[in-house]
Amino acid sequence: LGLAVYTGSLWAASDASFLYHDYCVIGAGPSGLQAAYYLQQTGRDYVVFERSHAPGSFFALYPRHRKLISINKRYTGKSNSEFNLRHDWNSLLSHDRRLLFRRYSRDFFPDADTMVRYLEDFASLLKLRVQYNTAIIHVTLERHEQAWNGHYFLLTDQDRQNYKCSSLLVATGMWVPNVVNFPGSEYVEGYETVSINPEDFAGQTVLILGRGNSAFETAENILGVTNFIHMVSRSRVHLSWATHYVGDLRAINNGLLDTYQLKSLDGLLEGDLEDLAIIKDKKGKLHITLRFYLENRNTSAGIDSITLPQDELDNFATRAPYDRVIRCLGWKFDFSIYNRSLRMMPGKGNKKKYPQIKPNYESRGTRGLFVLGTASHSVDFRKSAGGFIHGFRYTTRAVHRLLENRHHGVPWPSTGYPITQLTNSIIKRVNEASGLYQMFSVLADIILLRENATAFEYLEEYPVGVLAELEMQTGRKAPNGLFVIIMEYGRNFSGADKDVFYYNRAVGEAQHAWQSNFLHPVIYYYKRLPTERDMSLRPPDWPLPRPDAIHHIVEDFLTDWTAPNAHILPLRRFLENCLSTDLRNFFAESCFLFAFTRQKLPPSCLVGYVRMQGLVGSEGLRRHAVEAGLLEDYSLTDFLGNRPLSDSREGSQDQLLRDRVVPVHPLQHLVNAKDE
């Protein structure tokens, strides 16, 4: 007994040395602050650890030349705040209207220092619980039966203070520079330390390794003072307007393409950087050679004894020596702080710089560990905007909703409507929803049909990668089929080698909507919820499995899908075909007629006319309906078509009341014949 008491006291003392929180967030960058906002709004126990003295420390250093490439469109011609977020790439989501980025900068491409100030205000004005000057240096697991996920996360900071959490949200971003090691790489300057003063490059010849925005940003800064600039990378340049991926080269940085193609000495080359080697001569000039030339050679013997490519090929492209070589190869995730027990593994191929995560942003190796922000971009790498603020602000909110359902029994937010509002609900969302627009092909609206398709539930911005797990992840049931609303580009429109400005690139007719190239809404209909097997067998480049029916709303030059004939009518007919019902809205007179001539009333009559609800008629409204062809002009003839009636509504009603014979509409004979 004494031994048990002693052991228990040791356990209690050990446990007391850990500061406990339900949620721990590592990193107070944009995604960490966004997660903190939602945790605070729902009253959860959380803490955010930030190694610096202020939030957004990455933006205090990068981009080096201080101009962001995330647009700040202050005017759209509309006052709808949700729509305006489609063109605001810097604001985080909150209820506070003061925290819109357009209130901080007038620049279309803002200064990075403005982002730092914005993030500081976001944290302070919303009173987020951020613990600054706290660098988490080690993370491990502790198995425990009573923990939410079967284990706790144990964190240690630089002062050896320990923390314990039930759920871990990693929002550290990508900040470890990508470095390629090859002979002579010690002569290479890194993007993170190279001078940003153009005068330091005056009259010099420069080689830049890399072909992303940081490489072109660096070139743009020194373009006017150098002899010439060469840029080398293993892949060809990818232009964002061709790939429709905002992480590719943006027009604001592409001045080097002009000077290359317009014969102004600068140039682009393709080659594997690991095959290169750099040799420094006695004058300090840097010569580019290939690694195999150095094999079995003594490089310390001097450059004169080393064979260079131009010795065998006198027009070798990089035969001119360089004054400086700059590495601009981007960043990768820091795996060093995570114990092997967490099984935080890098991805494969071009995703190896990211940790492996599931489509719900949870680590593949450890339950309860979620990756947010830029580091979660492996889910939609080179496809959507999940690696950038205007994308991961929505995926972070989605993760919070998943956690609310998993740990606190709070179902995914939804709104219920009668089926008569189905068309209107879809049209409203595709015209203003910013999450669908920015995270195209990744987040989708889900419409869950109720029994007999008389009503539906609307769920916003759910990750389509876990559609098969919808009932478990959201706490909502889908026994009667569902619609999935998503935004997509044309299948063959985007790519590094695509000409996106070709003649007749746009589709304008509704019957050709499936050939739309630009971003447009697509509605998938499933009679049952797709399974995991369905998801695994979906066609290449399809975000979803093959549906029972699919509808493309034709692309629109103004991204305004409200045209009655081109957009709304085809959508309504598609929905009617899927549900075998009539989704039109009818006047009371039509519902009255249908009550005598149809066995089944349209839904709008059931929820309106039958319940003595709906639009109150007037002479002006009646005349407008007649002129539009929506109603017959019963003011001129009676139902039998042989006697003029009074022009007024009251006179018509009096005439009917005085007639002892109830008039029969010609359609009634068809009904009677059918019944017989």
UniProtKB/TrEMBL annotation:
Signal peptide (residue range): none
Keywords: Endoplasmic reticulum, FAD, Flavoprotein, Glycoprotein, Oxidoreductase, Signal
GO MF terms, alphabetically ordered: flavin adenine dinucleotide binding; monooxygenase activity
One Pfam family this sequence matches: Pyr_redox_3
GO cellular component: endoplasmic reticulum lumen
SUPFAM superfamilies: FAD/NAD(P)-binding domain (SSF51905)
InterPro entries to which the protein is assigned, alphabetical: Auxin_biosynth/cation_transpt (IPR050982), FAD/NAD-bd_sf (IPR036188)
Cofactor(s) in the UniProt record: FAD
GO biological process, one term: ERAD pathway
Subunit architecture: Interacts with SEL1L. May interact with OS9 and DNAJC10. Interacts with TXNDC16.
Similarity field: Belongs to the FOXRED2 family.
Known role: Probable flavoprotein which may function in endoplasmic reticulum associated degradation (ERAD). May bind non-native proteins in the endoplasmic reticulum and target them to the ubiquitination machinery for subsequent degradation.
Name of the featured protein: FAD-dependent oxidoreductase domain-containing protein 2
